[in-house]
Amino acid sequence: MTDKQKFIDAASLKSKKVLVCGLQRSGMDAADFLIKCGACLTVSDIKKPDELKEQLARLEKLSKEIRFELGFHSEETFASQDLIVLSPAVACDSPFVLHALSKGVKVVSEVEFASWFARAPYAAITGTNGKTTTTTLVYEILKSSKLFDKVYIGGNIGIAFAGFADSLTPRDAAVLEISSFQMEFADTFAPRASALLNVTEDHLNRHHDMKTYMEMKMRVFQNQKSSDCAVLNADDPLVIAEKGRIKSRCYTFSVNAGSGADVFAEDGYLQIKTAGGGLEKIIKTSQIGIIGAHNLSNAAAAAAMCHYAFGVEPQTIAETLRNFKGVHHRLELVAEINGVAFYNDSKATNEDSARVALRSFTRPVLLIAGGSDKGSDFSSLASEVLKSSVKKVYVIGQVREKIIEALARKGFSNTEALGGLEECVTKAFSEAQPGEAVLLSPACASLDMFKNYEHRGEVFIEQVVKIKSGR
Fold first, then answer.
1. pTM here?
2. Active site members
3. Considering the domain 118-323 in this protein, what is its CATH number?
4. What is the pLDDT of residues 217-244, one digit of tens each?
5. Suppose 304 and one of 8, 206, 263, 432 were both cysteines; which one would form an S-S bond, judging by CB atoms 3.0 to 4.6 Å apart?
């Protein structure tokens, strides 16, 4: 009997000793599910109780039987469990995790755990950039298709997989954004459809090298059957080089004519290869509701996944691509004040994502960047700033000096380090001219100053609203 089979029936979790490590969104949803199952639950988080007031209040309403280990971890607690469910923020090489493994304790990621109870087909979308947009597009297309009773979206966005996995029926579908962190300890996770959008340097503070980072990304394919579907970016050399490892049906997408991809852009249209060997035009590229070459790539990936994995017709795909206007915190126009436009791109948590944002502008840009350190040297961001329409860069967070030094090495000196995001927004507005843009595109994670990138984006929006209202 495998470990998966041991716990596949939710009833079998009753009275099992289970530890949930990390009390952010995914940990909370896993804990909620385990309480319903009657598990003997322990929750552990290195944050102190006064930093977890909201989470503790919610858990205490659900059960009075939970054991709490807060402000520290202990080897004894980790080693005494039947199962440990890890939140994405908990690294696989944590000494407490390693100790539990040495004692034979089963350790799984939250998405792995949730997948044990999912009775519906699910899609997994990963990559360094574009995950949220592509995941949301796939979700909207599948909803519009009317092929399923209900379509769920979650994973690394919205609700954690554990928050709805046990609610899925065979007539439903789920679309998951998947990060590399979530693929640590994901041994049986097996999506009906998986996509790898792109791979650029990111999270090396966690994975240490690009080889390990790529291996985590490739895990979305490792348990697929030959009847399942894989979608790869033909324009990314690192991604397409992995095609030989795919065991399922493999399809490719590209924004380039003559690429040989299954979904591609040519002659002003997004086109798709049909089952009979022909070609069908999906939509004029000019009619797609989200702009930029990066979003054309995201649209192509979504079209490939929905058509080849789920049988959605091109006309249904076209309707969604035409009406979809983008996602919150990704190149989002917040307001225009006295001719100055404010864009929230808080979702840009790495250099490459910020570079893509900069390429979307021709008007002069006042850029706000910075945050927590993920091991980047910011040389690629500095090169892009030099080529772009950026006229000044305001920096915040742990990496302020690293960004300023990287820009200086490229010959860009119009920078200013400030204490907080609100100060940056106010200063940028005071220095901006009509026709210019203030862009929050941090190129960094947010955890040094904010709860997450969403919180950072909301703080930016709030400050813009204050300026607009004259407060």
1. 0.79
2. 131, 156, 203
3. 3.40.1190.10
4. 999 999 999 999 999 999 999 999 999 9
5. 263
